[in-house]
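In the design runs reported in the main text, the only information available to the sequence generator was the tokenized backbone. The following block is the verbatim input for one such run; it is reproduced so that readers can re-run the procedure and compare outputs position by position.
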């Protein structure tokens, strides 16, 4: 049986959400054969137990493996990619949802219509898990942007790859996994996207096909300054590598560096980190009023607490007014 597309699904402690993810995948309506290739990075909860139950219920559809030891997100992705049998790779996470039953079919049809392209992006809704709020088609601006703008958004790390499909052979041809893993990079999406967009043409499906779940327990949204600071610096390291490798423009480099320092300053203020706040504030060339506020919040805890109190007050007021309408 020839596999046209592999769903590359990496998981780690997704017990609360993995059923919704798997349900959305097994319900796909396709005129081709596909597989769900799962790489579980030694979850400590019931994630892999749930996956095994689905594999038993849907024989022939799943290709699953649990790592003997934790490989990290990039190592897990590469190991799972090596087991994929499809010509196309649909990359997905164990806490997101494919909301359209025709999503995989739409990807394959796009590649058939334009066989020269290397990858296809698509729209998604953003689900704010703790607030139980959905932002419809939250990446609309990047999906409808010009190709040049879209490429720059990828270079700047401003494209979140929820619901992307790649040609497997081109991933191997252009993505330098050995370098990234040798540098102990823990981010998997940004390096793949930059390497691919610098070598391949692409298309975008102009509709929202997926739901991207944002919650505090996910790897990229863990709420600690140390984790956020670590990821920010990993991104900066990658960006510096890419701008030397691909000769990014001076204006793009300046934009990224300024945005990086502003992001660090914001979180330094939020988590009251004086050293990081001082360092990032001094590195910002064009300071705004918000930058000064975030700096004061990092140096004087009372400022940050007053800001949070103000936000909490307006949030309660908004809910109260909303309930009366």
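Verbatim output:
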């Amino acid at each position: 049986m020839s596999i046209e597309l592999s769903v590359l699904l990496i998981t780690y402690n997704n017990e609360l959400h993995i059923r919704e993810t798997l349900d959305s995948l097994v319900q796909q309506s396709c005129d081709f054969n596909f597989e769900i290739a799962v790489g579980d990075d030694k979850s400590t909860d019931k994630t892999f137990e749930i996956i095994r139950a689905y594999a038993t219920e849907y024989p022939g559809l799943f290709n699953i493996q649990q790592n003997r030891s934790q490989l990290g997100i990039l190592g897990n992705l590469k190991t799972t990619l090596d087991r994929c049998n499809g010509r196309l790779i649909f990359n997905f996470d164990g806490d997101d949802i494919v909301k359209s039953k025709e999503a995989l079919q739409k990807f394959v049809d796009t590649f058939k219509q334009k066989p020269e392209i290397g990858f296809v992006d698509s729209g998604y809704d953003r689900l704010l898990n703790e607030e139980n709020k959905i932002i419809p088609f939250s990446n609309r601006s990047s999906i409808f942007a010009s190709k040049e703008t879209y490429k720059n958004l990828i270079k700047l790390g401003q494209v979140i790859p929820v619901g992307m499909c790649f040609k497997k052979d081109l991933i191997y041809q252009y993505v330098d996994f050995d370098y990234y893993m040798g540098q102990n990079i823990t981010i998997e999406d940004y390096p793949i996207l930059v390497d691919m967009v610098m070598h391949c043409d692409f298309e975008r499906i102009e509709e929202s096909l997926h739901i991207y779940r944002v919650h505090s327990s996910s790897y990229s949204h863990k709420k600690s300054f140390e984790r956020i600071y670590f990821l920010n610096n990993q991104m900066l390291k990658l960006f510096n590598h890419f701008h030397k490798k691909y000769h990014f423009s001076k204006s793009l480099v300046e934009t990224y560096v300024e945005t990086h320092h502003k992001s660090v300053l914001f979180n330094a203020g939020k988590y009251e980190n004086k050293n990081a706040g001082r360092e990032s504030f001094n590195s910002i060339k064009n300071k705004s009023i918000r930058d000064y506020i975030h700096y004061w919040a990092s140096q004087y805890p009372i400022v940050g607490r007053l800001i949070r109190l103000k936000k909490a007050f307006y949030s309660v007021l908004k809910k109260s007014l909303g309930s009366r309408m």
